[in-house]
Structures are given as C-alpha cells and as structure tokens.
Design goal:
By secondary structure, the protein is mainly β. Helices cover about 10% and strands about 40% of the residues. It contains four helices and 25 strands. The strands form six sheets. It has a nine-stranded antiparallel beta sheet, with no helix packed on it. Strands 14-23-22-19-16-17 form a six-stranded antiparallel beta sheet, with no helix packed on it. It has a four-stranded antiparallel beta sheet with strand order 1-2-3-4, with no helix packed on it. A hairpin with a 6-residue loop joins β22 and β23.
C-alpha cells in the first residue's frame, strides 16, 4: 500500500487555447493526469478512483510509471555498477499477482513541486534522491521534470530525466494512459496498432529473449483482449475510434517500446509508451543517462473528429456531404474548401 492520505486535495486545471479540451492534473499525487474532457465527455478511463490511487498507487487516468514501467523479474537487480535489493514490504512497492515489483516506486508520490502553471500548460519537478523511500529502491540521483501542454486537439507530455550525481541513471520510465470512447460499447471501438514485432513473454509475463513478427490489421476491438509488449513500432500511431471521435497516442520522442492493455470486461484501452522493455534492468536495450546530460521523451494523446460515412452521419450533415460530392458550382466550392480546412485541422501529419 502506498499511503498518500490527503495528497489529492489540490488539482491543476488546464484549458486549451480555444477551450475545446480541458484537463485535470493532480501534482501532489504523482503528477497524475486525472481527466481529459472534450466538452462534457470524459476521455480517460478510471479503473480506480482518485482516492484509491492516492492510497494504493493502482494506475488510473494517465499515471507516470517511474523509475521503471511494467514489472521486474525479482526484488533484486544490478545495473550501472550497483546492486539493489528492494524492500517488498515498503509502502511504495507495488506488486503484480505473481508478487513481482510493478510500475516503479513513485506512484502517487506527494513530493512533486509545481514550477509553472498557466491555463494550457503545467510544469513540475521531482527531486528523486531527496526522498529516502524513493532513493532506497533506485539509488541513482536525478531530477524528473514533466511538462504537459494542452492544445485544441491534443495533450502533450514531455519528460526530462536529469542526472544529478556522478553515476549514470537507467532510463526505464513510462506512462499508462487509460483511454475510452464515451457512449459506445467497447466491442464497437475501432483500433489501429502500428506494431511490427511482439516480445514473447513467459507465464509470469516476463521476456523470454525472443520476439516474433506481428501484423494486427485495423478493425473492431470486439471481444479481443490484450496484454502485450511490442519492441517493433511502425511509423503510425496507436488509435481507438468510434461515435465520431478518434483518440490516438503518438510517440514523439524517446519511447522505443509499447505495452497494449485491454483486459476482458474493461471499458478502456491502454497504449503505453515505454522507454525500455519489460524487466528493464536485465535488458541490453535499456539506456543510461550519463552525468551532465539529460534524457527527453515526449508523447501525445490526440483528439480528432472523424467522418463515419453517410449511414452514420446525422441527416443535416449527411445532406451537406451529398452536396459536396457532386461537381461543385462556385458557391458550393467555397463550402467544400471550408470543410476541407476544418477537417485537416484535426489531421496533423505524423512527426
């Protein structure tokens, strides 16, 4: 259990420049992204309440996973010349059903300091080594800075890991965004998964050292379930769409692995950006941030409007579509161009 009673009392409210999107973060509770709203619609899933997250660290909303995402193979690990033994009874050590250390040590941490706050932007810092309950399980001094920026069509999260000691710092953090399409059964959600290779895991969901090629065509989520780690990422973006809306997660910088999580009976799907693979402290793929350097990673959650086709569009909009599908007269051409500009604003090119 991660006792964080009272830490969730203050929130930071973000608003995009035109007010199309709003977001809520809770800086003193792990810099948790608690809410992302498009009008009256909540776009984040909440498998547990904010109060439960503050108390236990169980992920919900958009939580940071640090200093590692996913699970470790053992309470003991050795990396960058240091051997560490985790205290599995410590209140900030989470465990998976097999008793393995899960999702780092900083869940719901109250030690974040807000550096800058304005309607579309929030920046906060965690001095990791200043807090014994964090430093004991990951003795690599560093600062972690998060900057979240809300635009009219996306929420971007930038993370910087800055070593502050004389030793390198393993880079293995990630995020666990829970996304949902409000008002539509998850079986009707349409998913896009730009992956090319999946890590083969054992019965404890740990890497076996092998990977396999994979191609998952876009299509309905249906009754499919996922809990897979991918080490081959294509050039596209993870996306779920339905009911006239498309949500995507785009890895902009620094994220080289992804976890896809959609358990049975859930009303959410998670496209999780990860800087390192599962069980990172035993992997040759895990990077080290050297002293007097910094590691930067960015991802975005995008929100776009989509055309559903004439059969699914309300009558008034369907009529406009039928008009612009014919060779336009000059006045109709003006309407056509305006609609194209409006649609393309929500269709930004992949960076």
């Amino acid at each position: 259990m991660v006792s964080r009673a009272g830490a969730a009392s203050r929130t930071a409210e973000l608003r995009s420049p035109s007010g199309l999107l709003e977001a809520t973060f809770v800086p003193r509770t792990g810099m948790l992204g608690w809410s992302l709203r498009d009008g009256d619609d909540e776009l984040l899933g909440h498998p547990v309440s904010l109060e439960r997250y503050a108390e236990t660290g169980e992920p919900t909303g958009i939580p940071l996973l640090h200093p590692w995402a996913n699970r470790l193979a053992s309470p003991e690990y050795e990396i960058a010349g240091r051997r560490v033994v985790l205290d599995m009874n410590a209140p900030n050590v989470l465990k998976d059903p097999n008793g393995l250390p899960l999702h780092g040590l900083a869940a719901a941490s109250p030690h974040w300091e807000v550096l800058d706050e304005e309607p579309p932007r929030l920046r906060a810092r965690l001095d990791y080594a200043a807090w014994p309950e964090l430093e004991r399980g990951f003795p690599f001094p560093h600062l972690l800075e998060l900057t979240v920026t809300l635009a009219d069509d996306r929420l971007e999260t930038a993370t910087e890991l800055i070593p502050t000691g004389e030793s390198p710092v393993p880079v293995a953090f990630g995020f666990h965004p829970f996304l949902r399409i409000p008002g539509l059964d998850r079986r009707q959600w349409h998913v896009e998964l730009p992956v090319t290779s999946r890590m083969v895991l054992d019965e404890r969901e740990l890497p076996t050292g092998r990977s396999e090629p994979v191609h998952i065509p876009p299509g309905p989520l249906g009754d499919r379930t996922f809990d897979d780690c991918f080490d081959g990422l294509g050039s596209g973006e993870f996306a779920v769409s339905g009911a006239g809306r498309r949500l995507h997660v785009r890895f902009l910088e620094g994220y080289r692995f992804a976890q896809l999580f959609a358990p049975p009976g859930s009303d959410f799907i998670c496209f999780e950006p990860m800087t390192a693979p599962v069980n990172p402290f035993e992997s040759e793929h895990t990077l080290l941030a050297e002293p007097v350097s910094r590691y930067r990673a960015r991802f975005e959650v995008g929100v776009t409007k989509v055309w559903l086709g004439p059969a699914s569009v309300p009558t008034r909009v369907r009529s406009a579509v039928s008009v612009i599908s014919r060779p336009p007269r000059p006045r109709v051409k003006k309407l056509y161009d305006q609609r194209t500009r409006t649609t393309s604003r929500f269709s930004k090119p992949i960076r």
